[in-house]
Write a structure and sequence with these properties.
The chain is mainly beta. The protein has no helices and 17 strands. It is about 0% helix and about 50% strand. Strand 12 and strand 13 form a beta hairpin.
Length: about 160
Protein backbone atom coordinates (compact mmCIF):
# COMPACT_ATOMS: atom_id res chain seq x y z
CA UNK A 1 0.00 0.00 0.00
CA UNK A 2 1.15 3.52 -0.83
CA UNK A 3 -0.15 6.41 1.31
CA UNK A 4 0.59 10.08 0.62
CA UNK A 5 -0.79 13.06 2.54
CA UNK A 6 -0.67 16.81 2.13
CA UNK A 7 -1.73 19.37 4.73
CA UNK A 8 -3.32 22.75 4.27
CA UNK A 9 -5.49 25.12 6.28
CA UNK A 10 -8.02 27.62 5.07
CA UNK A 11 -11.60 28.59 4.57
CA UNK A 12 -13.87 28.08 2.73
CA UNK A 13 -13.70 24.32 2.22
CA UNK A 14 -10.43 22.99 0.77
CA UNK A 15 -10.39 20.49 -2.08
CA UNK A 16 -7.42 18.26 -2.90
CA UNK A 17 -6.42 17.05 -6.36
CA UNK A 18 -3.57 14.59 -6.71
CA UNK A 19 -1.36 14.45 -9.79
CA UNK A 20 0.77 11.56 -11.07
CA UNK A 21 3.51 12.37 -13.59
CA UNK A 22 1.80 15.70 -14.29
CA UNK A 23 -1.67 14.25 -14.95
CA UNK A 24 -4.71 14.33 -12.62
CA UNK A 25 -4.93 11.14 -10.55
CA UNK A 26 -8.42 10.48 -9.25
CA UNK A 27 -11.07 13.09 -8.54
CA UNK A 28 -10.99 16.26 -6.44
CA UNK A 29 -11.88 15.44 -2.87
CA UNK A 30 -12.04 16.92 0.61
CA UNK A 31 -9.76 14.07 1.75
CA UNK A 32 -6.07 15.08 1.92
CA UNK A 33 -4.77 11.48 1.76
CA UNK A 34 -4.08 9.41 -1.34
CA UNK A 35 -4.13 5.63 -0.77
CA UNK A 36 -3.18 3.11 -3.41
CA UNK A 37 -3.61 -0.56 -2.60
CA UNK A 38 -2.01 -3.39 -4.58
CA UNK A 39 0.95 -1.21 -5.57
CA UNK A 40 2.87 -2.29 -8.67
CA UNK A 41 5.97 -0.96 -10.44
CA UNK A 42 3.69 1.21 -12.61
CA UNK A 43 2.83 3.29 -9.53
CA UNK A 44 6.40 4.60 -9.34
CA UNK A 45 6.69 8.21 -10.51
CA UNK A 46 6.17 11.84 -9.58
CA UNK A 47 3.29 12.78 -7.26
CA UNK A 48 1.98 16.23 -6.42
CA UNK A 49 -1.03 17.58 -4.51
CA UNK A 50 -2.94 20.73 -5.49
CA UNK A 51 -5.13 22.35 -2.82
CA UNK A 52 -7.93 24.59 -4.06
CA UNK A 53 -10.76 26.69 -2.64
CA UNK A 54 -12.74 29.63 -4.02
CA UNK A 55 -10.04 32.09 -2.91
CA UNK A 56 -6.73 30.42 -3.75
CA UNK A 57 -4.85 27.38 -4.99
CA UNK A 58 -1.44 26.02 -4.09
CA UNK A 59 0.55 22.93 -5.11
CA UNK A 60 3.06 20.88 -3.20
CA UNK A 61 6.50 20.13 -4.56
CA UNK A 62 6.66 16.89 -6.49
CA UNK A 63 7.61 13.77 -4.58
CA UNK A 64 9.29 11.02 -6.58
CA UNK A 65 8.22 7.55 -5.51
CA UNK A 66 10.29 4.52 -6.46
CA UNK A 67 8.56 1.18 -6.18
CA UNK A 68 10.84 -1.75 -5.53
CA UNK A 69 9.15 -4.88 -6.76
CA UNK A 70 10.09 -7.86 -4.62
CA UNK A 71 7.67 -10.62 -5.64
CA UNK A 72 8.11 -11.48 -9.32
CA UNK A 73 5.57 -10.13 -11.79
CA UNK A 74 4.99 -10.59 -15.51
CA UNK A 75 5.17 -7.38 -17.53
CA UNK A 76 4.70 -9.06 -20.94
CA UNK A 77 3.05 -12.33 -21.91
CA UNK A 78 2.67 -14.11 -25.24
CA UNK A 79 -0.65 -14.07 -27.06
CA UNK A 80 -3.29 -16.25 -25.37
CA UNK A 81 -3.84 -18.32 -28.52
CA UNK A 82 -1.30 -19.33 -31.17
CA UNK A 83 -1.65 -21.60 -34.20
CA UNK A 84 1.30 -22.74 -36.31
CA UNK A 85 1.81 -25.30 -39.06
CA UNK A 86 3.98 -28.37 -38.47
CA UNK A 87 7.69 -27.56 -38.79
CA UNK A 88 7.52 -23.89 -37.79
CA UNK A 89 9.22 -22.42 -34.72
CA UNK A 90 7.22 -21.63 -31.58
CA UNK A 91 8.49 -18.73 -29.47
CA UNK A 92 6.73 -17.73 -26.24
CA UNK A 93 8.37 -14.56 -24.83
CA UNK A 94 7.88 -13.35 -21.26
CA UNK A 95 9.17 -10.20 -19.55
CA UNK A 96 9.38 -10.20 -15.76
CA UNK A 97 10.38 -7.95 -12.90
CA UNK A 98 11.19 -8.75 -9.28
CA UNK A 99 14.07 -9.19 -6.90
CA UNK A 100 16.72 -11.50 -8.36
CA UNK A 101 17.37 -14.30 -8.59
CA UNK A 102 14.15 -15.26 -10.36
CA UNK A 103 13.64 -18.95 -11.03
CA UNK A 104 11.60 -20.13 -13.98
CA UNK A 105 9.64 -23.31 -14.62
CA UNK A 106 7.62 -24.35 -17.66
CA UNK A 107 4.38 -26.31 -17.77
CA UNK A 108 2.44 -27.97 -20.57
CA UNK A 109 -1.13 -28.99 -19.81
CA UNK A 110 -0.46 -28.44 -16.10
CA UNK A 111 2.59 -30.73 -15.94
CA UNK A 112 6.15 -29.53 -15.41
CA UNK A 113 8.31 -29.88 -18.52
CA UNK A 114 11.99 -29.29 -19.13
CA UNK A 115 12.82 -26.00 -20.72
CA UNK A 116 15.48 -23.34 -20.80
CA UNK A 117 16.17 -21.23 -17.74
CA UNK A 118 15.31 -18.20 -19.85
CA UNK A 119 12.29 -15.97 -20.09
CA UNK A 120 11.24 -17.36 -23.45
CA UNK A 121 10.15 -20.82 -24.42
CA UNK A 122 11.14 -22.07 -27.84
CA UNK A 123 10.42 -25.17 -29.91
CA UNK A 124 12.51 -25.01 -33.13
CA UNK A 125 10.24 -27.26 -35.21
CA UNK A 126 6.78 -27.94 -33.81
CA UNK A 127 4.95 -31.25 -34.16
CA UNK A 128 1.26 -31.96 -33.63
CA UNK A 129 2.13 -33.49 -30.24
CA UNK A 130 3.35 -30.02 -29.13
CA UNK A 131 -0.25 -28.71 -29.14
CA UNK A 132 -1.50 -27.84 -25.67
CA UNK A 133 -1.73 -25.24 -22.93
CA UNK A 134 1.59 -23.68 -21.87
CA UNK A 135 2.27 -21.67 -18.73
CA UNK A 136 5.33 -20.18 -17.08
CA UNK A 137 5.91 -20.13 -13.31
CA UNK A 138 8.34 -17.56 -11.92
CA UNK A 139 9.49 -17.45 -8.32
CA UNK A 140 11.96 -15.90 -5.93
CA UNK A 141 12.31 -15.78 -2.14
CA UNK A 142 9.25 -13.47 -1.93
CA UNK A 143 6.78 -15.73 -3.73
CA UNK A 144 5.74 -17.20 -7.03
CA UNK A 145 3.24 -16.49 -9.79
CA UNK A 146 2.00 -18.51 -12.75
CA UNK A 147 1.23 -16.88 -16.09
CA UNK A 148 -2.13 -17.08 -17.75
CA UNK A 149 -2.14 -19.99 -20.21
CA UNK A 150 -1.18 -19.76 -23.85
CA UNK A 151 -3.22 -22.21 -25.92
CA UNK A 152 -1.06 -23.56 -28.74
CA UNK A 153 -2.34 -25.57 -31.68
CA UNK A 154 -0.25 -27.22 -34.38
CA UNK A 155 -1.90 -28.01 -37.70
CA UNK A 156 -0.91 -29.72 -40.90
CA UNK A 157 -0.94 -27.48 -43.96
CA UNK A 158 -3.05 -28.81 -46.79
CA UNK A 159 -1.58 -28.67 -50.27
CA UNK A 160 -3.61 -29.00 -53.45
Amino acid sequence: ELTLSCRAQGTPTLYYQWFFNGEPFGDKTVNNTLRITNVTAQHGGRYCCKVVNSKNEVSTKEATITVKVLKPQFTRLPKPGIELPVGRMLLLPYDVIGEPPINIQWKKDGKIISGPNEFEFRIPEVRESDSGEYTCVISNRHGSVESRPTHFKVYTEMTT
